[in-house]
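Appendix B, Record 12. Input sequence as logged:
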Amino acid sequence: MNRHDVLDKSIIALLVIVILLSQTGCEKILQDDQFYELSVPQEKLQTIKSLPLTPKTTAPTKAELTGDPNSLLNPPPSKEVSISLEEFRASTLRNNLELQVQLIAPTIAQENVNRERAKFEAAFFTNTNFIRTDRPGGTITEIPGSGTFVPSITSSQNENIPLDIGVYLPLQTGGTLTFDLADSRFKNLAENSLLSPWYENTLSLSLSQPLLRGAGTRANLHSIRVAEYNKQITDNLTKLEVIRILAETDRVYWRLYAARKQLEVRLKQYKLAEAQLERAKRFVEAGEQPKIEILRAQAGISRYLADIINTENTVRDRQRELKRFQKAVGLITTDNRIVIPTTEPNPMRYELEPGRLVDLAFENRREMLDLELQLARNISEIDFQRNAALPLVLLDYTYGLNGTGPRRKDSLDMVTDKNFENHRLGVRVTIPLGNEAAKATVRQTLYQRRQLLADQKYRRLLISTNVVSRIDAVETRWQQILAARQSALLEGKLYEAEIRQFTLGLRTSTDVLEAQTRFANAQSDEINALVEYEVALVDLAYETGTLLGAAQVQWAPLVPEIAR
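Logged structural output:
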């Protein structure tokens, strides 16, 4: 064997492999994405541990034993942070972890589109072998003058080193185009071989194209269209998640606002109860009221103190809920800052036109756009399945140039001279008998389209009903604001009248405290009415696929850091 020939072919094969690796190369993986195995102890899976509770060993304080309100009304000072609704929205868009999870979904969907588009990428291929054959053969020779024939065994020994290099190119028409260069070195190991070694080269161009099933760009771009439709559906869902999280941001903000205002009402109620206690003491000391009035006033203070404790707990819950929209989970337990909402409700009555808002919902609601995309995807699926039901007619054509010679250069020169040309044209036809499976698939996709069209009509009806219901809710909340304000005004006047009656000895502390409670409840109802009106507007905007506020919100997919 010629060492130079083997070296040449090895260099050629190595160069091709290097080209392939440089084009396709393996992705580098970050440390966090490296392969690992996890082995969980069986005890951890099967053992349920108990909650470790440690009894408190310190003695209760005097405030805890006597219910001293000052220790509860004057907690240790904490840093206060004021935040407006606009600032809270912006902070949520930057820091909300749930939103960051949702923003990765479009990036994943885009990679699916990229994968489908890559199916038309060209591919290099190469292969080489070393073949050595030793085939037995036989001859019969006559012994001269004897008339006797004697068989003899011979062997045919050959070496062949074929190398095949080419490019495979899928076409958008459904066919494939292949460029192929085949190089072979033959060597006859027999001593009497006249031409050894010799070389053969073939340069060929092959085209395989379906004519019915799988033919045409419309059928072969189907998977890309479906991936793009799915990407748009994912984008639409992500947009809904952004709207949902921002709408929930508004609700959380107003809930915290309401809780803090309720706490202010309860603290004021407590202070008024203390004032009633001092008033009762003065009248008892003057002999104008019995001593039981002091007990009645003290009992009222205790009830109000319990209301303060419960309301403070509600404020802390609302603060944690608000912080959850801005920070990581670990910071919620360590951040003790008090959040003060600075945006005040500004109730305004709006002209809400049901027809216009319903049309706005049809235009912006995720469900309607999703159904449009699903219908478009379904149309593509119907067209693809109808194409798949056609007979398979495959046209194959190959054009080749051949060369041979005692040297590789001679063989390649013969190829470039195009003295020896091959043409091969073939047709393969496959016609399914019955074709029931393909027909059933087509019918299935048609039925799915009818289902989507019916769902579209149902969604329009449901959206119309929900939008009108939200409009009624907004109007109802407005009427509740007016009623609550009137009630708070009247209850305030009634409370003041009860105090005057008490000073005249016509009412007891219980009557005053009950009037005070009704007054405080009326103030709480007014706060709730204001906040519920703001929330009703948020719900109406969400129902129409929009957000409150003059500024529009644009989101962008989040691309996580990975190795490239």
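The chain has a mean pLDDT of 83.
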